Amino acid sequence: MESQEGSGNVPRWENMDKDILSNIFKKLDVVDVVMGTSRVCITWFLASHNKTIWSTIKLNDLDSIVLDDPYWPQMQDNDDKEKHRYHLRKILIEINKFSRTVPTNFFFNVYCNNILEEDLAIISNGMPNIRKLALPIWKRLDLNSIELAFSKLKNLQTLTISPYPWRDDALSPELRAIGDSCRNLTTIKFHCLLDKILANIIICNFPSVQRISFRCSYVCIEATMSLIIGHPNLKIFNLSHCIFMEKPHQYNDAYYILGMRPEEEIVQIGTQKLDRILVCSSSDHCTIFQDVWKYIQNRMDPPLKASLRSGGTVET
To answer: DSSP for the chain?
Structure first.
């Protein structure tokens, strides 16, 4: 700093062009921008309001966020002085001050599991132009709050959702509320088990959706067939790196794992009805296929391993 002050040819940081500063800030985590760089000086504060920084918001750095969740104690507030941590609500409020109505993409980390009704309200009220939203819902939220929040996201086109574990049709009201509000929704990406109940919910509440993904999830054979055949406008179905299962008994909750290669009937019907169906092949080129399947087999009990059956080769 002393050498810079003594040289007339080297500009000081606070005198740097705002566009250059904005390009640098785009490389930073969003929490570092709102809680750090924007508070250094007036020049950095103004540069932090550049619209190009806020078109896409990613809350990926959980080391900066206090979750206060007893199930994830490692993500709660602590006495670690090496990293400043902030409550999610405060971060969202600060983001709203800088981004205004600019954001078109908003992505939560899948493990950001303490999203509450108030958090959704901050996003929907301040960022109504969002087109892509990644939203993990790990807790039951008030249905009226969900309806109100998504009713303001009229431009939403792509939704990535990681719902909390549920039984029966417990998630149906929430998904119905989203489907009723977001008429422009064309793509849904799920990170959860695809069973017959969820397939029926998707068919009934998201008839205009054209692209559905269950990539790297557990999927039931019967539910997969139901979705392919019963959905009126489905064009692209992503089942890559999925674990396929079947439920032999209607009144039994048990599923049998079949493997990562789908039934030939699924591929045939999917190829005939859809524009594109994405599945794993048995080739050695898919390293994710090998890693996931090896992990699943290592966790299986011997009787479950014995229930596996091999399928034919499927080309992706």
So the answer is: -HHHHT-SSS--GGGS-HHHHHHHHTTS-HHHHHHTGGGT-HHHHHHTT-GGGSSEEEE--GGGEE---TT-GGGS----TTS--EEHHHHHHHHHHHHTT--SEEEE-TT-TT--HHHHHHHHHH-TT--EEEEEE-S---HHHHHHHHHT-TT--EEEEEEPP--TTTTHHHHHHHHHH-TT--EEEE-S-B-HHHHHHHHHH-TT--EEE-TTSEEEHHHHHHHHHH-SS--EEE-TTPEEEE---TT----EEEESS--HHHHHHHHHHSSEEE---SSTT-HHHHHHHHHHHHH--HHHHHT---------
